[in-house]
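Batch 3, record 17
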Amino acid sequence: MKSILSALGHQTALLTFLGLFLTFAIFLGSDFTSLGNLSNVTRTLAITAPLVMGQAIVLISGGIDISVGATMAMAAALSIGLQHYGAVVSVGAAIAFGALVGAANGLLVAKAKIVAFIATVGTMSIVRGMMLVYTDEGSISNTVPGFGFWGGGSVGPIPVPFILSVSLMLVLWWLLRYFKIGREMYAVGGNKETAYLAGVAVERVQVTAFVWCGMLASVSGVLLASRLESATPQIGVNLELFSIAAAVIGGASILGGRGGAVGAFFGLAALVILTNGMNLLGITTYYQLATNAVLLIVVVVLDALRSNRAKRQSLRLSPRTVEDELTPKREPGLGGPHPL
Amino acid sequence: MVLLAGLLVVGAFVSPVFLTPNNLLNILGSSSVLGIVALGQCVLILTKKFDMSVAFMVGLSGIVAIMVQNAGVALGLSFVVGLLAGALVGLMNGIIVVATKANPFLVTLGTSTLVYALSLSITRSRTFSSPYEDFLVLGTGRLWETIHYSSVLFLTLAILLELVFRYTTIGRSLYVIGSNERVAHLSGTRVTRTVLLTFITSGVFAATAGLVMASRNGSTVANSGVGMDFDSIIVVVLGGTSLFGGRGGALRTVAGVLIFGVLNNLMVLLGFPAVAQQIVKGAVFLLVIWIDSALREDKR
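Prediction for the assembled complex:
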């Protein structure tokens, strides 16, 4: 019994999701549980999920990506705007663009040693500006037949993007759990120096995480563009915070080394259901905004408290002296025999 | 400073209107709101922290002041109430950061949204105007018909802050905390109290800027400070205050504000579209921070 409870304790996201689902199902009844509403909710969830999983991957590797919303918007714009070259080219270009932004973020963080949130704020500003210039600050729409299927279509009662996102989640889970690069991401996020000393190519892992995140944000952008059959400048605004909150509810930590794709998926599911429930209850936008803000603060604070406790415990295991605290921490690239 | 002089020379070449006294005074005037926000941000950055809630704080303090004016409160008192709102939000940020050691960037991004939601819920998304004619003087008036009152306020605050940084115990301790919080604690600095105070300072400065902004608009605009969270960090770093804490100052920030203002002005005079300016800003931001990081690597 105790082991079941402690196993459940690690599934905060799943529990929150189930709790909210049941609460809304009971209080809102058929408004909430109707097939129409549920398929709407799953579709919204499925479209944002790749981006949130990307954020989770960057968090695992010890980074943070504020530029995801802007990348998603630019990817949506590219996938619509380049369609006269065919849908394959436009989607390919959108995802390549995401990879490019990710690579830029990764290099700024790994090579230029700029703190991740500061570096990605810069790229966010640039990418958002590019998107606004590209779309001329308006919405663009121009879709080839069949493009709408990927974001807007359904197979039976199940939305197509849901199938795509769940497959993506399983692939990412597999990559993170059973592949070298996946394990290295946890190692780098947990402790860069240890990872370096254990022979992990820290910079390459960091760049890879950001590239994956950029590509996943682009997938979200393409799916949304396909659902709306257009791209607007409002896409992805505020999504950076939302994605961080979802990933952290899903078990990731701002300080790195924890989390996963499945958790992020359910963390997002909890937030999407919360938003949907508030909409159905007729709660005004600014109270929803306030709720999301409080949620982010609570999530960040709980995450900090959790890692403070972990730090204290490790201190107790290996008592450090004041002198230890005062010696400057060596970062990878400075301590090893071969500079990175 | 070299950069600023360079920009002024370039400006003189590319545009005939650029180097007229009136244009330069206008640059100073229009930069002063951002400048006041940046001074507050600078205090925090010295201690290696950030305040992202300043952008919507600018909106909130104006709204609070105008709403209480409409409720019949005198002009002077409404200013105090507006500043108090800033102090309270700063206190909230400070308490969360100090008590939980959470990442100040993310915490204040959260409170930023909270402040925006609060602004919207106070005005219910409607616009209110100030009942006092005199209210507009702060934002639009000029001293001796030349220099804007807002510029005078900005420069006075900058000089006061520089004096605090240089000659008071608490000012000096900011640098120690920024360099190494642990050392600061061990050498007897009251870190907790000082950090709380810096967050309150940043809130009050943003609120001051908000009053100037509201007085310039004459009415409530919840998102009047939008973008100032990032812009204020850009100008602080542009002026030569390090993001890694412990290095910088208020007068340097003034230089950063002026460079930024001149850059903006040049882009407008050269007819850059507003959205393209965002790209340039982002690029400048990354460049400056890259240099800041590189300088820090060199020092070690």
